[in-house]
Amino acid sequence: MASIRFIHSADLHLGSPFSGMKGLGAEQWKTLQNSTLAAFERLITYALETRPDFLLIVGDIYDAEDRNLRAQHRFQQGMEQLHEAGIPVFLSHGNHDHLSGSGVSFDLPSNVHVFQDSVENMTFTLRGATVNIAGFSYGRRHVTESMIEHYPSKENGVIQIGMLHGSEESDTEHAVYAPFRKEQLLAKNYDYWALGHIHKRQQLSMDPPIVYPGNLQGRHRKEPGPKGFYEVVLTDGYAELEFIETEAVRFERIEIDCSSVQHMNELFSIAKEQLEAHDAEALVVDLELRSLDEATLHMLEDIPNGELVYALREALSEPQRFVHISTVQLDRNGLSSELSPFGKQLASRLESWQSNDWKQALKELYNHPKSGRFLPQLNEGLQSELQVEAVAKIRKMMALEDQQ
Predict the structure, then answer these.
(1) At residue 243, does pLDDT exceed 90?
(2) Using one digit for the tens of pLDDT, what is the confidence trace for 28-55?
(3) What span, in angstroms and rounded, lies between the C-alpha atoms of 54 and 86?
(4) Above 50 in pLDDT, residue 229?
(5) Which Pfam families does the record cross-reference, listed alphabetically (predicted)?
(6) Do 210 and 279 share a domain, yes or no?
(7) How far apart are the first and last CA of the chain?
């Protein structure tokens, strides 16, 4: 088999609104709003500098079916740059930007192949080797049936790659679209499965590779850590993967050891050291204060609601870097203020709520003829904010009740 090198990306979510974020300064807000576009530009720049044989984009190029106009324009410009460099692009649309979506459209250059709503197997020759790439786009938002049976089996002597925007049947953390079992993918005997839809970077198999690269840019606290894409080299059945970071703003959950803290200035100093150890160019941080003794916990709980977050934002700000403290949580494990069994059950249930649970709980409020029109869109970012705040309030209220 000839050696080929390509980029595997997915879930660009260009035009993400980042609703639900609070307390950001004007420049920070602008940076966050532009972060998906900045991450995309880093993908394009890397491709132009390294000249891969081709680029894969596996679904959810845009965040919404109406396809933000500015995002479409920037995407079209990126495709034109790749066209001028002679780099082919194979892309599919997913559940967020399905083919039935509304809005204007841009004409993409001839180097871009867009898969339609039935599985296609594109064939081309690369340095004497035949390469097949199979994939499909979502024709509608909800593709709940399995599409695996429509993917062709691998032909002898051919490099076969599959593009699939979907999730495992057994997935309990995400809405299951275009479901599959790992065994079904292995049975196709492909050389590489380029997956999309799950925003957490993971490898379901390496022989052959069945890979989620994650998204290019995290969008809220449930998408923490480095984000980017994979550069893949396939040689004689062997795969070499290198992860390339692209995020412009990184979401992180950082634990602060407060075992030696007695005064607030000590907490500020320890937290500042922890943040400086993270090399991301921009950070949105959830702080968890751990190893609190009774005196320190009571000191922190006596601070008026919200004041601790604001004080930490000010104390931990950096003149040369975007650092934003989003939430502060107090770890009460092991203290007398620990939750009662009922409190634990209630907090645990809220922590496990998914999108449909929130929609059902808030359905009456959002459907109210007077108040509904003033409420923000109930997207993942806002749900995440509500989840953290609700659990924190339960923990504080139930802990205080247990002490009385």
Answers:
(1) yes
(2) 999 999 999 999 999 999 999 999 999 9
(3) 9
(4) yes
(5) Metallophos (PF00149)
(6) no
(7) 72
The answer to whether 83 touches 110, Cβ cutoff 8 Å, is: yes
Q: How far is CA 296 from CA 16, 17, 252, 279, 299, in A?
A: 39, 38, 24, 29, 5
Structural contact between residues 93 and 143, judged by C-beta atoms closer than 8 angstroms: no
Same domain for 239 and 256: no
Q: Rounded mean pLDDT of the chain?
A: 87
* Number of Cβ atoms within 10 Å of the Cβ of 155: 13
Residue 349: the pLDDT is 75
The last residue of one of the domains, among 195, 222, 245, is: 245
Domain count, the chain: 2
Tell me which residue of 16, 5, 69 sits closest to 40, measured CA to CA: 16
Residue 240 sits in the same domain as residue 258: no
Tokens of 336: 């007398």
Q: Which structural domain range is residue 105 located in?
A: 4-245
Place of tokens 């939430």: 327
Same domain, 228 and 254: no
Strand partners, 203: 211
Of 134, 90, 83, 74, nearest in space to 110 by CA: 83
pLDDT at 248 over 90: yes
CB 133 within 8 A of CB 163: yes
What is the model's pTM? 0.82
Strand stretches in 228-363, DSSP E: 228-235, 238-245, 250-257, 282-290, 322-330
111 and 67 co-located in one domain: yes
- The residue type found at 68 is N
CB environment 265-284: b (16+ within 10 A), e (fewer): eebbebbbebbeeeebebbb
